[in-house]
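seq as requested:
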Amino acid sequence: MSADQPPHERQQQPDEARAEVRAAAARRRRRAAVFGDVLPEATSDDRDEGDGGAGGNDEWLRRQVPPHHG
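C-alpha coordinates:
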Protein backbone atom coordinates (compact mmCIF):
# COMPACT_ATOMS: atom_id res chain seq x y z
CA MET A 1 0.00 0.00 0.00
CA SER A 2 1.45 3.35 -0.95
CA ALA A 3 1.43 6.11 1.65
CA ASP A 4 1.25 8.81 -1.03
CA GLN A 5 -2.20 7.66 -2.22
CA PRO A 6 -5.35 9.17 -0.67
CA PRO A 7 -7.15 6.80 1.74
CA HIS A 8 -10.12 6.31 -0.58
CA GLU A 9 -7.82 5.16 -3.39
CA ARG A 10 -5.79 2.71 -1.33
CA GLN A 11 -6.78 -0.90 -1.63
CA GLN A 12 -6.67 -2.94 1.54
CA GLN A 13 -4.79 -6.16 1.57
CA PRO A 14 -6.80 -9.23 2.65
CA ASP A 15 -4.97 -9.46 5.99
CA GLU A 16 -5.65 -5.79 6.71
CA ALA A 17 -9.31 -6.19 5.83
CA ARG A 18 -9.64 -9.17 8.17
CA ALA A 19 -7.87 -7.29 10.95
CA GLU A 20 -10.26 -4.37 10.48
CA VAL A 21 -13.29 -6.68 10.66
CA ARG A 22 -11.91 -8.28 13.83
CA ALA A 23 -11.26 -4.87 15.39
CA ALA A 24 -14.81 -3.73 14.59
CA ALA A 25 -16.22 -6.92 16.12
CA ALA A 26 -14.13 -6.38 19.25
CA ARG A 27 -15.43 -2.79 19.54
CA ARG A 28 -19.03 -4.07 19.25
CA ARG A 29 -18.39 -6.67 21.98
CA ARG A 30 -16.86 -4.07 24.31
CA ARG A 31 -19.74 -1.67 23.66
CA ALA A 32 -22.27 -4.44 24.36
CA ALA A 33 -20.46 -5.35 27.58
CA VAL A 34 -20.67 -1.75 28.80
CA PHE A 35 -24.09 -0.69 27.56
CA GLY A 36 -25.89 -4.00 27.10
CA ASP A 37 -28.44 -4.55 24.38
CA VAL A 38 -29.88 -1.25 23.27
CA LEU A 39 -32.88 -2.87 21.65
CA PRO A 40 -34.36 -6.17 22.82
CA GLU A 41 -34.87 -8.96 20.32
CA ALA A 42 -38.64 -8.89 20.89
CA THR A 43 -40.71 -5.99 22.15
CA SER A 44 -43.71 -6.28 24.43
CA ASP A 45 -45.93 -5.98 21.35
CA ASP A 46 -44.35 -9.13 19.94
CA ARG A 47 -44.59 -11.18 23.13
CA ASP A 48 -47.68 -12.85 24.52
CA GLU A 49 -48.08 -11.38 27.99
CA GLY A 50 -50.66 -13.95 29.04
CA ASP A 51 -53.42 -11.35 28.93
CA GLY A 52 -54.83 -12.77 25.74
CA GLY A 53 -58.22 -14.22 25.09
CA ALA A 54 -61.24 -13.08 23.16
CA GLY A 55 -61.94 -10.04 25.33
CA GLY A 56 -58.39 -9.26 26.43
CA ASN A 57 -58.25 -5.81 24.85
CA ASP A 58 -61.77 -4.88 25.95
CA GLU A 59 -61.02 -5.90 29.52
CA TRP A 60 -57.83 -3.83 29.52
CA LEU A 61 -59.83 -0.85 28.23
CA ARG A 62 -62.46 -1.28 30.96
CA ARG A 63 -59.72 -1.33 33.61
CA GLN A 64 -58.36 1.96 32.30
CA VAL A 65 -61.64 3.90 32.77
CA PRO A 66 -61.32 6.32 35.69
CA PRO A 67 -63.76 5.74 38.59
CA HIS A 68 -65.63 9.00 38.00
CA HIS A 69 -66.55 7.78 34.48
CA GLY A 70 -68.00 4.51 35.73
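Residues 8 and 59 are 60 Å apart (CA to CA).
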